[in-house]
Amino acid sequence: MHGAPRMERATAHSRTHLVTRRHGIASATAAILTVFAGTFAAAEPVKLEQPYTDKRPFSAQIKVQSSGHLFTSRSGGQSERHTMTAAATYEFIERRLPPGGRDAQALRAVRDFQAARMEMLVSDKRTTSELLPMERIIISSGQLEGVSAYSPTTLLSRDSLDLLELPADPLILTALLPAEPVEVGAEWTPPEWVSQMFAAVEAVEKVEASCKLENVDAGVARISVRNHVRGQRLGANTDVKIVGTFDFDTKENAVSGAALLYETKSTIGTITPGIDGKLDVTLVRRVAEAPGRLADTVLEQIPVQAPAVAEQLVFHAAPWNARLRHDRNWHVFQAVLEGSQQVVILRRIDRGSLVCQCNVTNLPAAPAGQHAPQEQFDKDIERSLGARFKQFGRKQVVPTENGRFIYRVEAEGMAEITGNKGAVEIPMTWIYYLIADPSGRQMSFVFAVETSLLPQMEGSDLEMVKGVQFLAPR
Question: Are the beta carbons of 348 and 455 closer than 8 angstroms?
Fold first, then answer.
């Protein structure tokens, strides 16, 4: 109260100074309130969702840099270490497809690849994998063990199928998003099926996973992710750690980028080397200006479930002028297509366990309309099996509709298996095939399988033999 009269006696200059101070205080207060308002607004829950009904086309670029070591088996139970580096680039346009089921199977997309290429250097051996032009329209579908792929226009090779296992796959990143709106700083645990699919393992022993909304800046939500899964892949013990961040554009309601580090350790498997490696992965994803080849009419023709024939794979034996078709449980273990010891070796894996090994040999051609004598084929079987051979089982000429000759022979015997606890003999069945084209071109197949595992073959041996394609000489 005593200050009021003094204010009344203030000079004009003092009043001006007081007004200026009040104005400065008011401005500062307004600025502070604005900051707090922005803070409160940022703390409001943010919806992070891209529904499957979003049919907009998106362009995506993924770049991968990998380094580490591969391990292969040597005699005497030893292993050999190989230095490995790799680089991969992917560019594609994608559009979402209706769900094919629940959880992982709800994640589907059609993709048109402009680039899909990987270069790998293992010790001093360099290899290159690249999608062929006819393989570049791809249907991608979520599965527990990762995102599977098939082409609606051609059969994929195993190399192409492996190449299409994309790290930082936008379908998986979309599945990591929270089910409800979250505030900045909020954390959530993805469903276990998402963590398994992210790590691309077939069986899970342990999962530790978490996501956190770190911030929202200029309409882009940045989410940190940690995903540690221990389990099995193709029968090998596998440990996968994934850390990093991915971005969600809140204006476009879509995943827009990612920067992830993968660390993978796995033991030597039946068909795979051991791995101790790291992958640095970046993703850039934007709404595309046009769908390109992925027009609505194309999407309308894609079935919800993949046709059975589209799930088959093809092995191109170019020097033999032939192709082998097989289901996805068969994996090419070794291929020597030139020289004196030509052979293609495939192994069949079912639920992580080895079921069968198949050796394919390209035989000298017979005169047109003829084939190697069946009696001679039988004698060759006995000679090749040696002491392991006990007796022949069923023999038959398989009926065909394309003029081919297929002779099937079962041989029974015993095989010695040596392990850490010594050697043991187990009953074995060898299924031999002689196949001859009307032109006289021939191949032989032998499927070696423990007799107790024969039911797991499910006719895949005859299916592979019937699927052989003899091509015209180049």
Answer: no
Torsion angle, alpha carbons of 74, 75, 77, 80, to 10: -20
The closest alpha carbon to 150, from 270, 264, 303, belongs to: 303
Distances (CA, A) of 80 to 83, 86, 182, 271, 305: 10, 19, 49, 16, 42
DSSP state of 182: B
Beta bridge partners of 89: 63, 117
Q: Any idea which residue has 């297509």 for tokens?
A: 337
Q: Are strands 203-217 and 422-436 parallel, antiparallel or unpaired?
A: unpaired
DSSP 393-437: EEEEEEP-SSS-EEEEEEEEEEEEEEETTEEEEEEEEEEEEEEE-
CATH of 312-470, one of 3.30.420.10, 3.40.1000.10, 1.10.530.10, 3.30.1480.10: 3.40.1000.10
Tens of pLDDT, residue by residue over 402-453, are: 899 999 999 999 998 876 677 889 999 999 999 999 999 999 999 999 999 9
**292-343: pLDDT as tens digits:** 999 999 999 999 999 999 999 999 999 999 999 999 999 999 999 998 889 9
